Amino acid sequence: MRKILLFDTIIDGHHADYLCHLVNYWLHTKPEGELIVVAQASFEPMFHQLLESVPSVDTVRFVPISQQEIDDTHKGSLLGRPFREWNLHLAYSRKYKATHVLLMYFDIFQLGFWLGKKAPCAVSGIYFRPDFHYTTSSGLKARLNVLRKKTTLRGVLRKSMLLNLFCLDHSAVTLVREMNPRVNVVPLPDPVKSYVITSAEREKLRDELQLDPNRRVFILFGHLDQRKGIEPFLEAINQLAPELQQKLCFLLVGAISPDYQAQIEQKISQASPNLQIVGVFKEVKGREIQVHFELADYVLTLYQRHVGMASVIIRAAVSDKPLVSSDYGYMGHLVQTEQFGNVTDSASPAAICQLLEQILVSGISYSKAKLRKLAEQNSDVSFAKTIFDRL
Q1: CB contact at 8 A, 9 and 374
Q2: Of 321, 328, 286, nearest in space to 129 by CA
Q3: Phi, psi of 118, deg, nearest 5
Q4: Contact residues for 29 (Cβ-Cβ < 8 A; gap 6+)
Q5: Where is the Glycosyl transferase family domain (predicted)?
Q6: pLDDT tens, position by position, 324-359
Q7: pLDDT confidence of 245, banded at 50, 70, 90?
């Protein structure tokens, strides 16, 4: 009997969402075989909630990874982690006699996959951040880093047990295919579940957050850390003329570490009183995410040298909101060439300020049709179907 094992030792952010999409699709399509979900114990409540919607299906089960195993795998040297992850996956795939394993975060397994013990069954993986094809500095260290990544990936691709590599950065697909045509390198949708949001829901949240209806709302959503470009954006809006500051609301939504929250709140306290800055410093899930996006006029992805795709782009497309994005990498290329919004140097407050002046005076020119198409192509169903059709 076919036994597909999904394996992930990380459960925050999109990791839980991706598992939910796959489990939900399996429950509703009822394919032959068994689906075994191996993840952190904290995923179990979400798993049982999914089962409640289709109680008659008994071909899906959840297997929690013990906290001790999680700690042992995540701690220790970074160089050793790929081998610890790989060996832990091997233990579960052997124990449950899997016929095919999907590594939900392929990137961290590569060295273990290439140089570690042989897997007992076919393996596929979701590849998040191939960045060896990005323009980089000409320094020796940077060139050696690119060489190391290419060498490792070529070694992985030579392993006969690797059948499919699902790639979230579509710009890398052709290059990876050229490394070894035997492996199925598949462009993978970046999934977002969409909801029908009522005007009453939207206005209720607007009132709760006390958003000024006369201001244009720029939302920054996700796990809030230094990579998200919060500080350059705060510097940029402080450089705006007072009359433009009075037209802007900066809405930050997402989980944040206490130390970084204290830093950001200090910077907010020093910002111009002409600005409205609202922080929702907690994890927001499911339907509530889209309600927040519906409140916004523009979506910020001014990430610092971000590699690969970002699901926030799809969330913007679902809510038909233009993007204000970094000009770096695949994300910057996508926003610019597909007319999803405007791009700028996300590390430069002056460049961000200049773009904001333009937006606040004359808005953004973008393609609603292309955003709509992007949302349709990256549904949770498209994501799961792309994967299960090949496992």
Answers
A1: no
A2: 328
A3: -75, 140
A4: 388
A5: 202-363
A6: 999 988 888 889 999 999 999 999 999 999 999 999
A7: very high
